[in-house]
Amino acid sequence: MTKFAFVSAERGNHAVATLCRIVGASVSGFSAWLRAIPAVRHRAEAEAELRGHIGRIVAARRRAYGSPRVHAELRREGRRHARRRVERLMRAMGLSARRGRRRAPRTTDSRHDHPVARNLLDRNFAADRPDQVWLADIS
Prior knowledge:
Elements: H1 3-10, H2 16-23, H3 27-60, H4 67-76, H5 83-93
C-alpha cells in the first residue's frame, strides 16, 4: 500500500495534514494523487486495449514482426502510440520476433558455364618494364 493510499483510507478518521505528516508525504502531493486516479485508470484500460492489438498483429504475422514493424502496422491502422511504448509492452508480454535461419554467405558462384579468364601471370608479379602488368585486390 502506498503512502497516499494509506492517507486516503484513513482520512475519515484523522486529518489529512496529520496523516501526510506521519507518513512523510505532502498534502499537495496527496491532492495531486487523488486527481490522477481517473487518468491512471484510463491509461490502464488503454494499455490493455493496446496489448490486445499488439498480440493480434504479432499472431497474424506469425511472430515475424518486432516492435518497429508492429508500431508501423499500428500507425497504418490509425493508432498513434510511441514506438518505445510498443517496445515496452511487447517486452512485458514476452513477445519478440523470431530470428531467421542463418545462411552460408554466397560470395561467388563457381558453378557456371561462362568462360574463365586465363591466368597470364601465374603468380609472377615482377614486371620487366612499366605498364606491362596490372594488378588489383578485392579486399
